[in-house]
């Protein structure tokens, strides 16, 4: 199968697929554009089936058409973030042994004006031993994770897996032909359970003219946007916009990439009448959790497991724990990854016995089956044998008026193994001192959780998806 071909087989070709710069483009338009890209790649460029082709360019109709064209040519689509440094770009090319990269060009091929750079004679690209195994999997998409450890793994999804993933995710999202989705994320970082899912279900994607809140809201109201799938940053941005208009067409708002602060959720709900639902997206798994349709009742929860997914919480010995006890989150279900690319590791060597995937997330479940994330296994700070999650301290620091963000890490210590230190960003209004923050921690935290140093910084390093990068 080919998921891009199936999108157009399912689509109503005269229905709107994308609205960009207030210009509507139908599924028929998108079919013709992507078919032209596929034909150009096959005939003029001469790419072989199952080639690995990167795509580097700005978000928009062209990006969507080019990505679908890559898939329709029989090649595997590799999104490349435009913010990569030259060395990171070269590393990606050589790590994946890309066959070539498509980029936007005013003097390129076809109606979309793209150029194709072949890496057939690239000095750093060699044919890897896993290429034959890759070809057996009907590869569709490779995404590089942006994990908090800084270790990046290429995650491979076949066409069959990609279809399973979008179908499973939509059991809760319930996106259909009647929906118009406001696009606010990055296409190079969010594509499977977003662009592909929306098109698979016949929805229209609305691309605003800028990333300003007023342009988001203008596009939402002008085009009757019904769904917002965004990061916590976007919810804060929208709720804080001056002179907020109503948003009567909005039926569902979903927050992904990181935990949505309750205050931000309440502010958004007060402004637009829809309480945002928290979701848990796992790059290797898909969208196994969605707190919908009643997110306000359990506002800090990622919700229950979506239909088709099984979940377990396990202790350090691998034994399943009961509701009310902390454990590491294990998941199995449809649409799980086919392989890691760097280094090559097929799914049979990734999942534990029974097909379970270890997420590395620490969570707790209540008696109703709602799950609450508590932290990550690899972020745990161990002070002389006493462990805690930095997210707990960060949340407390950010509760102080005048503090907008925080990062807590462990610093090596000759006696205790490590001790916690904190970096914070202050708004300057009201002015806050490190001593005030230290006193706040002393009042609310066990002694071993109190940062031994708190310093103000201009910025906190994060991944594109908004996760804190910890050293």
Please specify the SSE layout and strand pairing.
Layout: H1 3-10, E1 16-20, E2 23-26, H2 27-45, E3 52-56, H3 61-72, E4 76-79, H4 86-96, E5 100-109, E6 114-118, H5 131-135, E7 139-144, E8 154-158, H6 159-173, E9 180-182, H7 192-200, E10 204-207, H8 213-222, E11 227-230, H9 232-239, E12 252-255, H10 262-272, E13 277-282, E14 286-290, E15 304-305, E16 310-314, E17 327-332, E18 339-341, E19 344-346, E20 357-365, E21 371-376, E22 381-383, E23 386-388, H11 390-398, E24 403-413, E25 417-426, H12 434-444, E26 453-456
Parallel strand pairs: 1-10, 3-4, 3-5, 9-10, 9-11, 11-12, 12-13, 25-26
Antiparallel strand pairs: 1-2, 5-6, 7-8, 8-18, 13-14, 14-15, 16-17, 17-20, 18-19, 20-21, 22-23, 24-25
Structure summarized in a few sentences:
The chain is an alpha/beta fold.
């Amino acid at each position: 199968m080919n998921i891009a071909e199936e999108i157009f087989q399912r689509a109503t070709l005269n229905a709107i697929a994308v609205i960009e710069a207030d210009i509507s483009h139908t599924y028929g338009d998108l079919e013709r554009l992507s078919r032209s890209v596929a034909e150009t790649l096959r005939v003029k460029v001469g790419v072989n089936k199952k080639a690995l082709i990167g795509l580097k360019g700005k978000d928009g109709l062209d990006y969507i058409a080019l990505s679908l064209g890559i898939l329709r040519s029989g090649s595997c689509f590799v999104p490349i973030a435009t913010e990569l440094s030259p060395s990171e770009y070269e590393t990606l090319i050589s790590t994946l042994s890309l066959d070539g990269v498509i980029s936007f060009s005013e003097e390129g091929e076809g109606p979309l004006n793209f150029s194709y750079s072949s890496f057939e004679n690239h000095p750093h690209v060699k044919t890897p031993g896993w290429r034959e195994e890759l070809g057996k999997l009907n590869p569709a998409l490779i995404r590089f994770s942006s994990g908090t450890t800084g270790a990046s793994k290429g995650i491979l999804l076949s066409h069959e897996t990609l279809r399973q993933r979008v179908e499973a995710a939509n059991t809760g999202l319930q996106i259909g032909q009647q929906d118009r989705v406001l696009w606010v994320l990055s296409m190079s970082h969010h594509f499977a359970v977003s662009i592909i899912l929306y098109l698979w279900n016949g929805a229209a994607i609305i691309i605003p003219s800028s990333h300003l809140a007023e342009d988001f809201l203008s596009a939402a109201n002008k085009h009757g946007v019904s769904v917002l799938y965004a990061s916590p940053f976007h919810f804060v941005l929208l709720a804080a916009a001056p002179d907020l208009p109503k948003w009567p067409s909005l039926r569902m708002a979903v927050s992904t990439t990181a935990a949505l602060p309750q205050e931000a959720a309440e502010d958004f709900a007060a402004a637009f009448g829809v309480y945002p639902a928290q979701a848990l997206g796992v790059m290797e798994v898909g969208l196994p959790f969605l707190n919908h349709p009643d997110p306000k009742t359990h506002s800090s929860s990622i919700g229950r497991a979506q239909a088709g997914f099984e979940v377990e919480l396990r202790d350090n010995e691998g034994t399943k724990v009961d509701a009310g006890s902390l454990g590491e989150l294990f998941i199995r279900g449809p649409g799980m990854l086919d392989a890691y690319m760097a280094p090559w590791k097929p799914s049979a060597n990734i999942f534990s016995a029974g097909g379970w995937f270890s997420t590395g997330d620490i969570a707790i479940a209540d008696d109703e089956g709602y799950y609450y994330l508590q932290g990550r296994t690899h972020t745990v700070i161990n002070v002389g044998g006493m462990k805690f999650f930095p997210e707990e301290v960060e949340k407390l620091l950010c509760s102080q008026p005048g503090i907008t963000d925080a990062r807590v890490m462990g610093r090596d210590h000759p006696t205790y193994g490590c001790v916690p230190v904190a970096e914070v960003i202050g708004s300057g209004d009201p002015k806050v001192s490190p001593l005030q923050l230290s006193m706040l921690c002393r009042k609310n935290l066990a002694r071993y959780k109190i940062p031994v140093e708190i310093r103000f910084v201009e910025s906190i390093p994060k991944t594109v998806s908004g996760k804190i990068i910890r050293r």
